[in-house]
Amino acid sequence: MKQLRNTKQRQIVLETVLEHCDHPTADQIYFAVRKKDEKISRGTVYRNLNILSEEGEILHVKVPGVDRFDSRQDLHYHLLCSKCGKLTDLSDPYDPKFDHKIARESGYKISRHRLIFEGICPECQKKEKEQQ
Amino acid sequence: MKQLRNTKQRQIVLETVLEHCDHPTADQIYFAVRKKDEKISRGTVYRNLNILSEEGEILHVKVPGVDRFDSRQDLHYHLLCSKCGKLTDLSDPYDPKFDHKIARESGYKISRHRLIFEGICPECQKKEKEQQ
DNA sequence: ATGGGTGCAAAGTGTTTGCAAGTAT
DNA sequence: ATACTTGCAAACACTTTGCACCCAT
Questions:
Q1: Treating both helix axes as pointing N-terminal to C-terminal, what angle do B42-54 and B26-36 enclose, rounded to 10 degrees?
Q2: Is the pTM of this model over 0.85?
Q3: Which nucleotides of strand C lie under 7 Å from a protein CB?
Q4: Residues 15-54 of A near strand D (Cβ < 7 Å)?
């Protein structure tokens, strides 16, 4: 395993993710990072997001469309608006019993599951009605 | 709504998806389609995969990494090997009760949920052991 | 000093799209 | 005849990577 270093760039990326509670995409983080330091490159932001999520310091949320990042470290479920793309955390607790059950039945070494609900958020529903 | 046409190309794409039971990616379908007709273009295959899944004739399976397509029309859950990328159907039935619950709690108009388990398949586990 | 990290630009991957010509209805 | 579809290539969106230099340890 590599010995990770604590660079200024990595600190800024982590700090920026922690400041957001709205599941930013990598590019949104890149722009927020650039406000703090004009010099940091896209490659560095992407590299550090991958490193930080591998280290478990942030969460890499893989949803249909673009991937997001999350400052929460604990596994949880998501709700995605298929109209506006808004992503929300669900309060229902992550249930590891599912993982055990599937592991037993399939022989896989299960690391986790992802549960994503898709639908139209109240705001977009309202907009749809107004258009008609 | 558009009046869809029944073109030779669309038929070949649908037929090719139905022949596969291993969740092919769009590109795998493109290559299989090309074996039947040298002329069909990538754009046409992608366009038709999107149309067919919007029509509900096939399933667009959105998993981390590359999207896949499935000849099954009914919603179901998946198991993804994070080593080799193999994607398997789970036999557990899709549970619409979850959708109703989340709809009630969130105010979203829920269309579906996606549940994907991630882990290492037995074959890849064996390979990992052999390497050590 | 040394090996991980950075900025930059180029390349990669998977998918969509504009357009003129073709074709199902 | 109409308007949906096609093939083609270019464009797109997002992410990774090769390289020479830099800097945390």
A1: 120
A2: yes
A3: 3-10, 13-18, 23-25
A4: 25-27, 42-43, 46-47, 50
